[in-house]
Design brief:
Elements: E1 6-15, E2 24-34, E3 39-43, H1 50-57, E4 65-70, E5 73-74, E6 84-87, H2 99-109, H3 114-127, H4 143-154, E7 161-165, H5 173-188, E8 192-196, H6 200-206, E9 209-214, E10 217-223, H7 224-229, E11 233-238, H8 242-250, E12 254-258, E13 261-266, H9 269-281, E14 285-291, H10 296-306
Parallel strand pairs: 3-8, 3-9, 6-7, 7-8
Antiparallel strand pairs: 1-2, 1-4, 4-5, 9-10, 11-13, 11-14, 12-13
Bound molecules: adenosine-5'-triphosphate.
Pfam family, one: ABC_tran
Family: Belongs to the ABC transporter superfamily.
GO molecular function: ATP binding; ATP hydrolysis activity
Length: 310
């Protein structure tokens, strides 16, 4: 069996404070696996540790403890870096370049042979749909075009793993869709994608799997399909006594009112029978019980609020 694209185990990172400054524990015993060919979304609030994790994968930050392997090798192994492409959050693209001259400059900097450059650059410009504007100067590119150019630059070495930090941020809806389609095509061609983003609907559209980070730990992870499918049940009850409504709300159940009716969300199957018994014992009658699937946004919010306990 092939080793996963990314394997991280027991990763810890503390940024030491300077003279009397406070230390920050950015990652706390974090473990994660990304299989080859997956589009994997790293989610989490500001300061959760996403960028620290991606920088460790790229050997830009050194962890205090833990194991990091890419394609089965220690991530610092010679030659491995060439298999990883990186699109930083704010790529620095010099204004005097055109799209084509920028790619040529970056390809020379990273030592691609002239033959490879001459073949690869026109191919990449086509792949990211910038061939028609390849000779336009970069200040005349939209944010979406610049991000697609950033993806092309990250692909110059034909990497097997592409790490993208906020690739969709600030791009308008049409540009975002184009960028997402490009990323999905790459995943279909077998490139493993690891994206760090706050755009949950886009992550839901693109990614097979996600991990939600909070305060340096993973609070929820798994395949998007499975996470959405196991999100519980909605019970509709006629006239639930007020006392029980308050008690259930205090225990963290999500409750809504619909005229005389009331609906309660039970987050999982094991809790369902006990809840039904309790509603019946209070003399209320259950009208319907339906499974509910939640958006990624809902899964994310409940993971971050509850530390992943639901
Ligand atoms: N170089 C640094 N020195 C000190 N603290 C840092 C450094 N880089 C990050 N941190 C701290 O580590 C924690 C994790 O930061 P990180 O940038 O990894 O989070 P993030 O999830 O990427 O956040 P965002 O979504 O805002 O980009 C934060 O508390 C941050 O302030």
């Amino acid at each position: 069996m092939q080793a996963p694209a990314v394997e991280v185990a027991g990763l810890c990172k503390t940024y030491r404070g300077g003279w009397r400054g406070p230390s920050v524990q950015a990652l706390r015993d974090l473990s994660l696996t990304v299989e080859r060919g997956q589009a994997f979304g790293l989610l989490g609030p500001n300061g959760a540790g996403k960028t620290t994790l991606t920088k460790i994968l790229l050997s830009l930050v050194r962890p205090d403890a833990g194991i990091v392997r890419l394609f089965g090798q220690a991530h610092s192994s010679p030659g491995l870096r060439a298999q990883v492409g990186y699109l930083p959050e704010a790529p620095n693209l010099a204004a005097h370049h055109t799209g084509r001259s920028f790619l040529d400059f970056m390809a020379r900097l990273s030592g691609l042979a002239p033959d490879t450059r001459n073949r690869r650059i026109p191919d990449l410009l086509h792949q990211v749909s910038l061939h028609d504007v390849a000779d336009r100067r970069l200040p005349h590119y939209s944010k979406g075009m610049l991000q697609r150019l950033g993806v092309a630059q990250a692909l110059l070495h034909a990497p097997r793993l592409l790490v993208l930090d906020e690739p969709i941020d600030g791009v308008d809806p049409a540009g975002r869709m184009e960028l997402l389609r490009l990323l999905r095509n790459l995943a279909q061609q077998g490139v493993t994608l690891l994206l760090n983003s706050h755009h949950l609907p886009d992550i839901e559209w693109l990614c097979d799997s996600i991990a939600v980070l909070h305060q340096g730990r993973i609070v929820t992870s798994g395949r998007v399909k499975d996470l959405r499918a196991t999100q519980g049940f909605r019970i509709v009850v006629a006239a639930l006594p007020h006392r029980l409504q308050e008690e259930l709300a205090a225990r963290g159940f999500v409750i809504g009112l619909d005229g005389e009716r009331c609906w309660i969300e039970c987050p999982n199957r094991p809790g369902l029978n006990a809840l039904i018994d309790q509603i019946r014992a209070a003399g209320a009658s259950i009208e319907t019980i339906e499974p509910v699937t939640h958006s990624l946004e809902r899964i994310y919010l409940s993971a971050v609020a509850g530390g992943g306990s639901q």
